[in-house]
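Posting this for the archive.
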Amino acid sequence: MTSGTSPRSAKAGIWVRSLLFGIVATLCTRSLFAVIYDFGPLFSDLPLHVQLLIDSKAKDLQLGYSSYYALLDIISGQSLGIADLRTATVTLLATATGLRGAVAYLVMELAGARFWLAGVISSAIIVMAPLALPGGGDLVYLGKFSPSIWHNSTTIVALPFCLALFLFLDRYLTGSHPRPWLHFAVPATILLCAAAKPNYVLAVAPAVALWMSWKVASTSRPDRPREVRRLALPAAVIGVTSIVVLGFMFWSTFGGSGIAIQGKTVSLGVRPGVVWSMLTPNQIWSLIASFIAPAAATIAVRRQREIGPTLPLAWLTSAIAVTQFVVFAEVLSDGKVLGHANWIWGAHMSTFVLYIVCTASLVKHWKMATSAKWVAVSLAILQTVIGVLFLFLVVSGIAPTHVRF
């Protein structure tokens, strides 16, 4: 903030710049999503979700579990024309990308980054991919947990809501008296996030419960009753909203005759590691390739004491989401395990949030951070380069799930 500039004016400037960044990100990614869409349903889920909407409307069925379909229907003018729905898809996905870029930019500037650095970091996180080994044996995308998603429509639309929800939760759980508006913003964002895609709420809600339990247990015995009283209302708001929203979505999706594929009923099964092994032969490397950069950033700022739950909650959410993906599977009534990997989306969403949170923490504590910060920066640059090369190969005609170097 320059001399003579009021705090209110400075904050307004940050909001304006984040909005401008979001607009630029929207315009830059619109053509990219158009290319991905036009490669067809074997390339990405984008045309598939359009067909699901058409089939649902033709048969007068529910528009699917995700608010994505309702948004697509509205933006297309309730048209069943492929051209209109293609335009609506590209517009919706680019706008969602612009929104998460705008929020990421806002977070970075509020953490202390100069406007140009906030723009560079936010642009990098939009395109960043996991590490990948050269030689053709290591897929960039499949079986890993990426902060950027390009082939699944509902996940792309859900990402800005995931980030907003985490930021609201962080503020809600920090301090003795949360702002009154958070009592309404948190449940509203839980609803919006779950409606877009429920996976993130399925991970962050138990992560909040674990963090609260740890917070109470680690508080000295004389202060413990006060800590319980402080967390009681947030626990009730977050817990009740999550249970009601997720319970309703489960009932509306699996109630009645349930879901059938290939004429067989689909159910939730516990099959540790089965689906993950279908996607990658080296699970340990997939974890390292996905999380080494935020781990380095966390190590770099480990000496800085944070008041709120920011870093622990982000890591807990990612750990729970990855565990859910590893443990659970969709199983047909004949015992066959489906390789759809629908439980992986929570891991992708939480990874995106984790990258934002760890990067913002590193920016905030840069001067006091240990030398591990240079490892984190080097890895981030490398992952950004990999992400750019990844997108180059995608627009060249290689499906996102098949890109390798």
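The CA atoms of residues 146 and 310 lie 20 Å apart. The first strand starts at residue 260 and ends at 261.
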